Amino acid sequence: xxxxxxxxxxxFGTAVLILLGCGVCAAVTLKRSKAxxxxxxxxxxxxxxxxxxxxxxxxxxxGGHLNPAVTLGIAIxxxxxxxxxYYLLGQLVGAVIGAxxxxxxxxxxxxxxxxxxxxxxxxxxxxxxxxxxxGPVLGVFSTGPEIRNTVQNLLTEIVATFVxxxxxxxxxxxxxxxxNGMGILLTALIVVGIGLSLGGPTGxxxxxxxxxxxxxxxxxxxxxxKGGSDWGYAWIPVVGPLAGAAIAxxxxxxxxx
Length: 257
Hints:
Layout: H1 3-29, H2 40-62, H3 68-78, H4 84-105, H5 107-114, H6 138-141, H7 150-170, H8 182-198, H9 208-220, H10 236-255
Helix pairs in contact: 1-2, 1-4, 2-8, 3-4, 3-7, 3-10, 4-9, 7-8, 7-10, 9-10
């Protein structure tokens, strides 16, 4: 794979991942959306389908990592690091594009949801307290904890990402699984499983680009009354997944090679 193919594939694949993933969050969250209050099952399956679509689109060009944690785990497994910066560049750019397209697709719903808020944290903002700061639409773009505890939140992201990356790394142990496309489907299903089982505490970022790119877009969008972007929490969905991926990669080297 050329460097250009890697960047292109990751941009398109990650943009679709975020468009569909943050799109289901918008659909469930925003006023005047037909899917409003559809619930956690809709979000977890929506994100699983988002992985499926984005990874299939990118697979032929870049292998469809779509996630810096996956890229890190694969680099530790293979010892090949030269392509890592190109993957990270494509993933972050794609995440920003995908989040921007969510805003475009839901322009009317964002306006309806924020109508009359006026203040930095409007009436639909989460209450102050353990959940911490965050505006009324930040959850469309980025993750946040239900109980704000740095150690617990970090450990949750580490454990959840460890499961994802170890699953990805061990696919190669089954002949032909990674090559015939079935691996992408199974990865999408494990993302659904992680969301159902481990997503409750933090919203399961399990992907630094998935959280950081949309958070940047939230900070830049001209949405009156959108609230803060909660940058005090933003490092956890970056560091936690990378740590989980590093542990998964190291364990793979120790136990499976």
